[in-house]
Structures are given as C-alpha cells and as structure tokens.
Amino acid sequence: MAATKTILRDDVRTSILEASIALMNEGGLGSLSMREVARRAGVSHQAPYHYFADREAILAELAGDGFDRLYDYMASAIGLARPKMGDKNRAMGEAYIRFALNNPEVFRLMFRAEMCDLSRYPEAKLKADKCLQLVATTLGVNVDPSSKDKTSPDLAPVIASWSIAHGLATLMLEGKLGEAFGETLDQREAAAGRIIGFYSERLAK
Amino acid sequence: MAATKTILRDDVRTSILEASIALMNEGGLGSLSMREVARRAGVSHQAPYHYFADREAILAELAGDGFDRLYDYMASAIGLARPKMGDKNRAMGEAYIRFALNNPEVFRLMFRAEMCDLSRYPEAKLKADKCLQLVATTLGVNVDPSSKDKTSPDLAPVIASWSIAHGLATLMLEGKLGEAFGETLDQREAAAGRIIGFYSERLAK
DNA sequence: AGGATTATCTGACAGTGTCAAGATAAGACG
DNA sequence: CGTCTTATCTTGACACTGTCAGATAATCCT
User: Fold this and answer.
1) CA distances in angstroms from A113 to A42, B105, B174, B177, listed in the order given
2) pTM for the complete prediction?
3) Is residue B107 domain-shared with residue B186, that is, in the same domain?
4) A30 touching B, CB under 8 A?
5) Residue B148: CB less than 7 A from any atom in strand C
6) Which residue of A132, B86, B105, B177 is 20 to 30 Å from A63, comparing CA positions?
7) Nearest CA in chain A to B196
8) CB distance A75 to A96 below 8 Å
9) What is the CATH number of the domain that holds A31?
C-alpha cells in the first residue's frame, strides 16, 4: 500500500541524510562525498541519485534544515530577552553566534554560495529568507525580500547588525581571532556576547 | 651559473603560480586543480610538487599575496582619509570591502580555515597578522598578536569594526544581500560605504 | 497474471591528489 | 676528462571522486 511505500522511501532517504549530517560533522564538508554517504547508508553508490539530483541537492537540504534551526535559535533568544530593542538585538546576535559555534559545518554550508546556489532550491531559500525577516522585524523594520531598495536608511541598522554578528561568527569559526578568545564554547560565546553588547549599546544611541 | 639556475627555477615556479591565479579567478577555487595548473604551466602533472609540497602549499602562497594586497588597500585608504579617527575607521572598512569585492576568490581563500591552515605556513601568517596590526593601530590600540587576552575593553572596538567589515564583505560576496545592493561594483561599494558609515558614526560616540 | 512504474544495483568513464620511481641534465670535484 | 651528486622534471600507478547508462529487481495497478 501507499503508506508502506512512503515509509520505506523515507527510510532510505532519511538514512542518506543522516549519513550526510554525520559525515559533515565528523570530517567537515570536504569529506561529505556521495559515495561515502551511500556506503554509510548501506546502499549502492548510485542509490542517493534517486532521491537527490546531485551532491548539491543534498547540501541544499542540509542548508535548509540549518536555516530552520538558526531561526529557532534566534526566535527563542528573542522571546527570552527583555522587550527593549537593544536587549533583543543583543540576544539575537548572541544566538546567531551560538548557532555558528555549535554548528560550524552547517553554518559554513549555509553561507557559501558555491556550496549550494539557493536560488535553485526555493524551499531552502524560503527558510533563509525567513531568518532575514526575523532579524528585520525584530529591529522594527518592515522588509520585503523582493524589494529593489535594500539601501534605504531604515535598513542600515538591520544590515549593520547582521553584518557584525555574521562577521564575528565567521572570524571566530575560522580561527582568525586566535584561541585567545577562549578555549571552551562557553568562553567563546561569552566573549562574543561582550562584542555584540559593545555594539548594541552604541546602536541604541 | 647560479643566477641562471635561479632564474629558471623561478620561471617554472612563477608560471605555476600564475596559472593558479588565473584558474582561481576564472572558475573559482574549486577549479584550481594541481593537474590543470600543471597543464597550463606547460609541465607534467607532477612538476608542481617540486616547488610545493601539496595543493595547500600553493593556496597558502596565494593567500599570503592576498594579505599583502589587502594591507596595501587599507594602508592607502587610511593615508588618504582625514586624520580623524572616525574617518580612518570608515576608510579602512571601505577598503576592506573593496578588496573583497574586487578579489572575491582570494578573499575567500584567505579566510577559510580548511583551505589553508595558516599556522602551518608562517610566512603567510605573518602577512595576515600585519593586517590585523594595521587595523588595531589605526584604531589606536596596541595589540600583541600573541597576547592571551583579546577580550579587553580596549580591543572590543577593534574586533567590532573588523567584524562588521568582514561580515558585510562576506554577505555581499556570497550574494546573501541580493542583487538589490547594486549591479555594478561601484554601486555595491558605495552601498557598503553607507553601512560602514552608519556604524562608524555611532562608534565615534 | 501481466504490464507499468519505481527503486536499486552494477559497470564504466573521466577526472582528481599524490606516492614511487625513473629519466635527464647540469654542476661540483677529482 | 670522468664520475658523482643533486636539482629538475617525467611517466606510471593507485585509490578516490561525481555522475552517466543500462541492467535488474521490487512494487503497484488493472
């Protein structure tokens, strides 16, 4: 019956995705190969092509999941923060960085154009846009993602906030700030929070 | 004689590097393969290994050159700016982004840990540190790169400034801000300048 | 039961990085 | 001059990759 078929189909598909996630987290995106994924999922090296057009399609799916999780990180942080805008801004930035530090490989994947061209994967793109929307509305700005003018004064604080969180996350992730920022994840998160706070204070005027 | 030998040696080495740069700029880092480099340089597929231990060693050399050029971009921008700290900060950030937009592939290379582990290539690392030094001293902070404490209040503005420039550069480069930021390089640079300016005003108190 | 569709596998091809070993040539030294 | 060493570069091989094509098996529908 249809139910059984769907379950089985999802079964293989799911194990392919799980194997992909495991590989990505173990050895980085470079060691996520179609053949190794198939090996781990216990299927032939060609089976994944029945569910994903190519390697990039798998990456797009993982990236989409990543944006969903990033959204949850930020939404829950905003919910917990005091309703003052400055506090929310800081909480959101900290959540962004916490996500990046705790999910380094998927974060890289999400923000590298050559890994997966999101314009070719509308579902993943929607999830990405949802994150931007959250940032914008939290900062009290209405943004139409299809708008042609992203340089209006209204948008400057949004882009600036996003940029500082993203830049800090990236620099920490790639080790450009040295280990001196802290050994443990907690220490590094706290240090990032201090930088974000420094900026948030000045943004709030 | 020794001179001739050196010249010849540099000749092949140089053509290997030139082929690498050309490939990187044409098809991105993904299409920079040892074999294609060798093909372009007109040597056997194994010749490059005489000058570079492996693919990463070539990338490290290119990254080092990139840091040198980034330094020049920033130093010249600072020199042209009015001596006010806010102006210098803004000019430096704009130069950082201009470099990224005009040299996207080498910029990616420079800031991706898995591309080349700079700690294994001290010459390239020195050049990278020199850039950080320039940022710090321009903002009036003395930084010892080997210092253990990068979270002192003094350093917060340096990290924040670097982060916003780096984040904005990265997001633009990877197309996360959409094409709406401008079609031409000039438009995009100008838009970036506005964001950096927005931040610099508030940083300057 | 039989045809059609879906799911999966086996095999091949061109490409990769890089190890191993051979070839060539040039310089040093007696 | 002859030999020895070393730098330079080549050829060949191996294991790996992504993915196209075709064969095969399983399942569904009538």
Assistant:
1) 30, 12, 5, 12
2) 0.90
3) yes
4) yes
5) no
6) B105
7) A160
8) no
9) 1.10.10.60
